Recover the amino acids of this structure.
């Protein structure tokens, strides 16, 4: 592990009760990288992100975050350390306003003092949210909710952003816009892990990619080295 | 129509008391999605607590609020943190049944500790009235109940809307996992929410003890009142809780007027059942 | 399940049943009392379990039917001199009618609202009966059987009800209705799409439980000789049933048997200290929910695959 490693996952095995969801997963993400994790439904990619975030804990194996072991920590402690998850399905707080959702993003004490500044940054990144700042989150469109979910995750001043299927259910043109923002966020210095089903989109955005199948990593490499056929085979398990 | 105005006035003031009885149940039901069947018993527990302090220290019951409130907050916090948090999950039955168990334990504990005799926190306040016209006298105690109830409910509303912890509580109730991702320690948050709810029940208990006589088994009847208020008024709305309290109290008092005093409770039940059947989300509730 | 095991199982069951049925012959008066109470509570607990453990209906209002059945027997026997056993049966009938009426309201409610609705109905009945001249208000009524009733007769009636309730639940769960119930228990919506009539199944179970509860209560009050609203319609009835079934094992047929036995034992030991017994019961129930939520029989079933009366088909 080099000084530039943000996240190192070493041989973790994760279970949902008796169901063995992740088998001996190892991967590495360097500081400032955009890493994509690709796979079909049930491949375990969301499980992986949820484990990194702390909702699930690995039974064996370790996860280190900037050198610190975080394997058994609960979610509110991983976010305190600067790892923020944009959850699958967005999961904005429906009965809170846009402002209140973003406010909740800076809930941890460390981020409370910079709340005003973070808010300005998020509104600059997503002007639409500023327009709708007093609207209830459940009245926003799908794309706006996705922006809100990302903005909310940014409010805790994370070093690493985990994005779980941010293109789900959105129109292509909206997805394009969101991925542009992701690029901008990465340029600001954040490390990003993207989990996606859409192969093309996520390969385009990534510095490196992993392909998962049935809870295991089956392929990894730089997008340039991963031909379409290789990826498809790995994706479908051929 | 003699005394109708008086009955209505009494009903309105009593409604305030009912509202503060209910606010704790409503809060917990809305936030943790748990129906605390022990709510009424915890309320009566605080009545006994106040009684104990009054007889030991000779102070006025209202003064005991200073001690009752933090104690009841702690009781609620501990109850949620160490017992109820463990059974919260996908199914509705375990928390309901655990709360039921707690209710029975508290009732029987009070029965053993305080005997089945009727008790009360009544003082000279209970008899004071002042007149507001030829046929209208305002019972001072009811008025005090109403004012304190108003203060508690508005205070709690402000807390939930405008403070960090309050927002955290509301977020956790909307989406527990997402709130955790924001850094909300939901175990702690739920416990604090319950602490607040039981604290308000504590206030209600002192007020109830000052207004009516109570027994170790009085808890369930107040639980039903609280539930009635929540059902009629709807969850999560300050207006709703107040409206629910007023409607229920009026139904009871006017019902007693028409059918006789023995039917007071029954009229409340009937109104409640009708609302449950026809508009379960309550008058101000969100569908 | 080898057939030898099955044969042994059924022989033991048969032996136990015969033993239970002949207590008046070999047992002391005290044993008769003990097992009579056991049978009564067994029947009531089976019915609560049918609702909560299999139909997903948590009722905190079984006392509505207890009171209804009891008062039917009291009124019919004291005022009209009707045969006591017929009166008990009619007690079951009036309870069903009550349940039908209740269902108009509470079957529109879901989950916890349903539960509280059952309780409120019971409280309303309590108030109603306490204010009703016909049943002598809160002072209560005596049950005067037109002919002399022996303790043995009461015992046999209780025995029939206790064993009958177990058999009833067993047969019910093996029927088409039962399969639907068990599917519903797992997934309401999916089973509906497969044609299971969720609403009707739940209603049938509710009515059946009302019937048996009312009838059993009728027999109980023949034994008690006296009935009062605040006792007959008291939530205490449901409290005991809930605890029995939770401890014994909710959602199993054997659970209520174990639970009823434990309860009657406990209440006999702590007969003088009612509050303490309730406290202990409550504490045990909470511990069970935390530690082994399926109760004694449920946990045994889960860990060891041990089922005495299995509703499953092979």
């Amino acid at each position: 592990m080099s000084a530039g490693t943000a996240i190192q996952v070493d041989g973790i095995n994760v279970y949902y009760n008796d169901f063995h969801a992740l088998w001996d997963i190892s991967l590495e993400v360097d500081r400032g990288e955009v890493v994509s994790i690709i796979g079909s439904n049930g491949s375990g990619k969301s499980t992986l992100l949820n484990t990194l975030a702390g909702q699930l804990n690995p039974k064996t194996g370790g996860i280190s975050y900037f050198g610190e072991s975080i394997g058994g920590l609960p979610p509110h402690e991983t976010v305190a350390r600067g790892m923020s998850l944009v959850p699958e399905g967005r999961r904005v707080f429906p009965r809170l306003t846009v402002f209140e959702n973003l406010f909740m993003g800076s809930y941890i004490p460390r981020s409370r003092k910079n709340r005003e500044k973070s808010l300005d940054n998020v509104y600059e990144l997503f002007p639409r949210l500023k327009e709708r700042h007093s609207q209830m989150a459940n009245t926003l469109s799908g794309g706006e909710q996705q922006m809100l979910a990302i903005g909310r995750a940014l409010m805790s001043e994370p070093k690493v952003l985990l994005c779980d299927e941010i293109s789900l259910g959105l129109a292509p043109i909206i997805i394009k816009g969101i991925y542009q923002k992701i690029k901008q966020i990465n340029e600001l210095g954040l490390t990003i892990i993207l989990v996606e089903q859409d192969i093309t989109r996520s390969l385009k955005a990534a510095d490196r990619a992993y392909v998962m199948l049935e809870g295991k990593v089956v392929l990894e490499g730089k997008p340039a080295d991963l031909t379409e056929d290789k990826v498809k085979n790995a994706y479908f398990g051929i | 129509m003699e005394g109708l105005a008086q009955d209505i006035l009494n009903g309105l003031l009593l409604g305030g008391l009912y509202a503060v009885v209910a606010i704790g149940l409503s809060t917990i039901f809305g936030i943790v999605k748990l129906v605390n069947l022990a709510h009424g018993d915890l309320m009566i527990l605080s009545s006994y607590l106040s009684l104990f302090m009054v007889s030991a220290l000779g102070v006025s019951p209202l003064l005991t609020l200073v001690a009752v409130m933090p104690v009841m907050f702690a009781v609620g916090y501990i109850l949620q943190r160490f017992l109820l948090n463990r059974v919260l999950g996908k199914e509705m039955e375990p928390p309901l049944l655990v709360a039921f168990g707690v209710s029975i334990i508290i009732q029987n504990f009070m029965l053993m500790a305080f005997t089945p005799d009727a008790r009360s926190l009544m003082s000279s306040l209970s008899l004071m009235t002042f007149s507001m016209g030829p046929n209208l006298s305002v019972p001072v105690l009811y008025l005090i109940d109403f004012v304190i109830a108003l203060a508690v409910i508005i205070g709690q509303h402000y807390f939930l809307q405008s403070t960090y912890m309050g927002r955290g509580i509301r977020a956790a109730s909307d989406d527990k996992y997402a709130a955790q991702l924001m850094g909300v320690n939901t175990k702690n948050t739920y416990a604090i929410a319950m602490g607040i709810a039981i604290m308000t029940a504590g206030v209600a208990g002192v007020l109830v003890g000052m207004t009516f006589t109570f027994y170790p088994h009085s808890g369930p009847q107040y639980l039903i009142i609280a539930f009635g208020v929540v059902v009629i008024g709807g969850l999560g709305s300050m207006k709703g809780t107040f409206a629910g309290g007023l409607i229920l109290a009026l139904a009871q008092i006017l019902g007693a007027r028409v059918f006789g005093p023995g039917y007071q409770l029954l009229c409340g039940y009937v109104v409640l059942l009708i609302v449950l059947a026809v508009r379960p989300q309550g008058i101000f509730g969100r569908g | 399940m080898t057939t030898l095991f099955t044969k042994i199982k059924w022989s033991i069951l048969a032996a136990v049943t015969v033993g239970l049925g002949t207590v008046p012959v070999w047992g002391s008066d005290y044993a008769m009392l003990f097992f009579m109470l056991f049978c009564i509570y067994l029947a009531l607990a089976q019915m609560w379990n049918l609702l909560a453990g299999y139909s997903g209906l948590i009722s905190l209002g079984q006392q509505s039917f207890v009171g209804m059945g009891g008062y039917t027997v009291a009124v019919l026997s004291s005022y009209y001199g009707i045969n006591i056993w017929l009166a008990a049966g009619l007690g079951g009938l009036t309870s069903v009618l009550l349940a039908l009426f209740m269902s108009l309201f509470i079957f529109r409610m879901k989950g916890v609202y349903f539960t509280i609705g059952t309780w409120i109905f019971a409280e309303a009945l309590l108030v109603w009966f306490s204010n009703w001249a016909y049943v002598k208000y809160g002072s209560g009524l005596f049950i005067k059987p037109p002919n002399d009733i022996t303790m043995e007769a009461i015992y046999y009636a209780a025995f029939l009800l206790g064993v009958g309730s177990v058999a009833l639940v067993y047969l019910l769960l093996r029927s088409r209705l039962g399969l639907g119930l068990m599917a519903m228990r797992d997934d309401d919506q999916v089973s509906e799409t497969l044609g299971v009539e969720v609403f009707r199944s739940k209603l049938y179970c509710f009515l059946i439980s009302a019937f048996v509860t009312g009838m059993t209560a009728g027999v109980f009050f023949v034994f008690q000789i006296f009935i009062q609203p605040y006792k007959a319609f008291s939530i205490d009835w449901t409290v005991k049933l809930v605890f029995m079934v939770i401890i014994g094992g909710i959602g199993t047929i054997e659970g209520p048997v174990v639970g009823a036995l434990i309860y009657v034992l406990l209440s006999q030991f702590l007969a003088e200290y009612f509050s303490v017994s309730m406290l202990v019961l409550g504490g045990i129930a909470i511990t069970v929910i935390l530690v082994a939520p399926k109760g004694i029989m449920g946990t045994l079933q889960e860990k060891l695959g041990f089922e005495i009366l299995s509703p499953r088909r092979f």
User: Anything to note?
Assistant: Chain B has one domain: 4-112+137-278. The radius of gyration of chain B is 19 Å. Strands of chain B lie at 129-131, 137-139. The first helix of chain B runs from residue 4 to 31.
